[in-house]
Amino acid sequence: MLESERHTGRIIFLGSVIESERSWKNSPMLFCTSFYDMSCPHLFTIVKFGVWTALKNDTRMAASLLRLHFHDCFVNGCDGSVLLDDTKLFKGEKNALPNRNSLRGFEVIDTIKADVERACPSTVSCADILTLAAREAVFQSGGPFWYVPLGRRDGLTASEKAANEQLPSPIEPLDGITAKFTSKGLDLKDVVVLSGGHTIGYAQCFTFKRRLFNFQGTGKPDPTLDSSLLSGLRTTCPNVDKSNTKLAPLDTATAYMFDNAYYNNLVSNSGLLESDQALMGDPVAASLVSSYSMYPYMFSQDFGASMVKMGSIGVLTGQVGEIRKKCGSVNS
Question: How far, in Å, CA of 55 to CA of 52, rounded?
């Protein structure tokens, strides 16, 4: 079954994405939604089932797959480098500070890749599988469907240093985060839209604990944080080191449902991360937050468009890179 025939009950048609798809289909770079229609016609079904199985076993995995894709694309492009294990030649991205003991879903991608290899050997890149898995994770969690341009090739190296430098931090000022997005060809609107991915998933206490007890060295909590949320979070994350790895939902309203509740939380000063609530401190970003809180369809439409933009960062096509046989290592 071709991708264009799927999900007829809840497709969100993205005009800008469809226009881009037409141009990609005619591109000599062969970066288009129909890239594997002939070479691996069952690809979408395999990825869909692999993600469904993963979410059945662990509902949190939807957010993990989305985050894994984001962390891949933001470090030297969407080339599957985040999936590579360390070698004698390079330190990979898995143990970079933003990823260590927090990035998940590698085994899900490995399982899907193995199934794809059985069906279509040496045909589909790990980078494309990860991109499709992220889309499926969102859609199967109640979020939008968008068409995914395909034809990425896998990179031959990875960089722990690049991951430490290029990935946004949850305690980074909005200007700094926006600068990192701009360096990837994205903009402030993409910051607001893609931050909406925090409508699913959890964060470890250490990523936001200073908001609860010692915000910016004041010895007091973040004054913008809703008082009832503050009380609950202090119970979950007491001010002791052993609570650092405990988890709290990024969206307390609907932690496993991909919807626009994240933006409602920001409007009511209930964003979990500093970087989330900081969106309300910028007039342009705050206006977008307000719109998405009121118009879920607008958020769904813009999220798909921004995911296509992000998924196009630094892609390798043609004969550049390779099609890995296993996602954790380059071909020998």
Answer: 5
Catalytic residue among 7, 42, 69, 71: 71
What gap in Å lies between CA 82 and CA 92, rounded to an integer?
Answer: 7
Please give the Cα distance from 157 to 101 (Å, whole number). 21
Burial 246-268 (b: 16+ CB within 10 A, else e): eebbbbeebbbebbbbbbbbbee
Query: Are 92 and 184 spatial neighbours (Cβ–Cβ below 8 Å)?
Result: no
DSSP secondary structure of 50-66: HHHHHHHH-TTHHHHHH
Which pLDDT value is given to residue 31? 85
CB-count exposure of residue 212 (10 Å: 0-12, 13-18, 19+): buried
Q: What is the spatial distance between Cα 94 and Cα 114, in angstroms, rounded to a whole number?
A: 20
Residue 218 vs residues 106, 204, 211: alpha-carbon distances, Å: 39, 22, 10
Please report the domains of the chain, with CATH numbers, ordered by start residue.
42-166 (1.10.520.10), 174-307 (1.10.420.10)
Torsion of CA 206, 159, 30, 332, to 10 degrees: -120
Is residue 73 within 8 Å of 166, Cβ to Cβ? Answer: no
Taking the model in full, what pTM does it have? 0.91
pLDDT at residue 3 greater than cutoff 50: no
Would you call 71 a catalytic residue per the annotation?
yes
What DSSP line would sit under 151-166, residue for residue?
--BB-S---HHHHHHH
Centroid of chain to Cα 241? 28
Mean pLDDT (whole number) for 96-123: 97
On whether the CB atoms of residues 170 and 203 are closer than 8 A, the answer is yes
Poorest-confidence range of 20-24, 154-158, 298-302?
20-24
